[in-house]
Amino acid sequence: MSKKRMLLKKDMKEKRELINIEIDRFLPRKDEYPKQIHKAIRHTLFAGGKRLRPYLMTNTYKLFRDDIEKTFYIAGILEMIHTYTLIHDDLPEIDNDDYRRGRKSCHVVYGSDIALLAGDALLSYAFNALANAEIDHRLKYQMLAELSEETGHSGLIAGQVVDIESENKKVSQKTLNFIHNNKTARMINIPVRFGCYMANAPAEDQKRLAKFSQKLGLAFQIVDDILDIEGSKATLGKSPGKDEKSHKATFPSVYGLERSRKMASELIESAKELLQKYDEKAKLLLMLCDFVLTRKF
Amino acid sequence: MSKKRMLLKKDMKEKRELINIEIDRFLPRKDEYPKQIHKAIRHTLFAGGKRLRPYLMTNTYKLFRDDIEKTFYIAGILEMIHTYTLIHDDLPEIDNDDYRRGRKSCHVVYGSDIALLAGDALLSYAFNALANAEIDHRLKYQMLAELSEETGHSGLIAGQVVDIESENKKVSQKTLNFIHNNKTARMINIPVRFGCYMANAPAEDQKRLAKFSQKLGLAFQIVDDILDIEGSKATLGKSPGKDEKSHKATFPSVYGLERSRKMASELIESAKELLQKYDEKAKLLLMLCDFVLTRKF
Is A167 touching B (CB cutoff 8 A)? Predict the structure, then answer.
């Protein structure tokens, strides 16, 4: 492993532990009544996710300010929202995936009824935690309004729906972009945007970093599609080959494997270019870009 | 039909139409892309529900102020939350009910995947609509915090979970109360409480009306349980006998039919007593209490 990659790995681990402490602190205890739902919520939330979205938020904030601990609470909320989408995605209704983050999916352990409700509970809880956040009122509103829009019918869910509708169909590049921009890129854009908001970043930087996150988000999804073909359950932590089996719209299915790889690589290059102006401060974000491209899980 | 009942029926119809116009106004169009999800959302939302929760909110507000049109927006949001719970409840995972509000359930028409996402979308959209409401900031926060708590893991969902866990089991009165207080009474209490908030009702009235809604909510659920035994699909708009078939914890199964009827009747009597001080202004709420007790659907 290169020195850079080791540094990134160490830093991601450190931040992940801090975020986990924060999430654990504000989440209901697992023995709270009724126990089943609280255990189910924690099952997927603490199944060893990469905490990529919190990490992105914290490191975006770090471009402008050093007191990164101020981002942990909101970063934890974003991870809760992300986890809610994973639990519902894995349900037999949608992707029917028995593995997630290397463990049995929530519905396999707790049943589909409890898993469905665990996802619902996480979504309500995320908004509840945000409504109770001790931050500037104006900022809180903006985040509440944006988060509820991005996760809703014209955002995340629109991507999900078109993804479902596109199964077993030949899809256009436009449709593929729609799916991935909504289903994945949005939840990569939000942490970057919220990191800017919290750091009170200048408008010009917000614009640049929005472009950055757009490219990173798309690259992330392309690599996800490639890993679904090439990865193994041991490295992925979820079942590989699912997209192919269910004839999902993926970058490799539309552009071919080679061109998909090239696209991801080009997106990452231009994402990195957008970070140049931040020099040393963007060191970890730059490493994260490389990680997104070369990751095996 | 008695004169009182006719007056109530007419007023409920009028208010229902006004609420429906409001919901229609702020909800995404049914031909918005992707169409499926937007049609699915509207399918259950406009399937002819009683709009009991909005009606309760509006009439609570009316005890203190006359400009009831100010409540319609928030009342519409409560109906969206209620509808999200219905769509998820009806899914094969949970109650597996093919009929709702006299029409085929959302998942029967649009598939379980789209129905699941339609519920998710409604929950996000309800919070989005509330975050964007043009009302006093403090009040908005309070409602956001309370609504996300009441619908979450320690509220509505706690009731749902214990309901599921109690199937095919002999439950105690304590457990039955827990289920119904959380699963049903909360969504009856909220409209009354929010109506008070919006009207800026004195603390003493808020306390009295909280007691009122607690009694009304419990009576509502007892009657629901009785109707599940005695009703028909034609009048109920949903499949009767489901509770018995799935051995759900109900008032008749714990207390017997006769005692359950008596309990509902006593609860309604004491709910009505709590309204005495409002005289003529509580006329419609008083009629609504009788309606909750004697309704056939």
Answer: no
The three-point CA angle A81-A275-A221 to 5° equals 40
- Answer yes or no: is pLDDT of B222 > 90: yes
Paired tokens of B281: 């202004």
d(CA B281, CA A276) in angstroms, rounded, equals 67
Measured in angstroms, the CA of B114 and the nearest CA of chain A are apart by 7
- Find the CB nearest B34 among A32, A137, A158: A158
Do B34 and A165 make contact, defined as CB atoms within 8 angstroms?
yes
CATH 3.40.50.20 fits B3-211, yes or no: no
Helix-, strand-, coil-residue percentages of chain A, each rounded to 5: 75, 0, 25
Q: Which CATH superfamily does the domain covering A3-294 fall into?
A: Farnesyl Diphosphate Synthase (1.10.600.10)
CB within 8 Å: A128 and B121: no
- Calpha distance B183→B86 (Å, rounded): 11
What is the value of pTM for the model shown?
0.95
pLDDT confidence tier of residue B246, bands split at 50, 70 and 90: low
Do A15 and A55 contact (CB within 8 A), yes or no?
yes
Q: What is the pLDDT of residues B78-132, one digit of tens each?
A: 999 999 999 999 999 999 999 987 899 999 999 999 999 999 999 999 999 999 9
Report ipTM (2 d.p.).
0.95
